[in-house]
Here is the input.
Amino acid sequence: MASETELSDFLRSAERRAFKRCLYHVRDEEAALDIVQDSMMKLAQHYGNKPPAELPLLFQRILSNCIQDWFRRQKSQRALFSSLSEFELPEDADLLEFLPGALEEWGSESAEDATGRNQTLELLESLIKQLPDRQREAFLLRYWEEIDVAETAAVMGCSQGSVKTHCFRAVQSLSKSLRDQGFST
Here is the structure.
């Protein structure tokens, strides 16, 4: 069973990646923060007594469900308030700034290299946001969260073959888009 410290350490380590993943889906910074916080609360309340090895998969599944719930609520609100002029959809969220630790990994680099890297990462983020929902979810779980195929299938509630198909299509789409932008893949 996970101790309070182990649970806190896990949540601290998963927080930034979960926020980024959520932001890719909902494209609203405040909503993403709320969803991640709700997911963490649900994990702590309902599954805090599970072994530490089970926490990552449980958390990813809870986060996926909270994201889907958010989309359902948004759909209901749009249907309910679509005729009201005061209802506005949230604008696209700004891109996240890099993690402070990530900048240290690159060391000292020229301004030209840093700008080029930033532009490339911004392009990649925008391309990931354009992927269909299931492809984006599979891609982020497999390559961002580094979860294996079986666990990704469990989180997404689909077969391992579907995960592989979604990932393949996401990679193909991203590769084509990057080639179209002049990058060699």
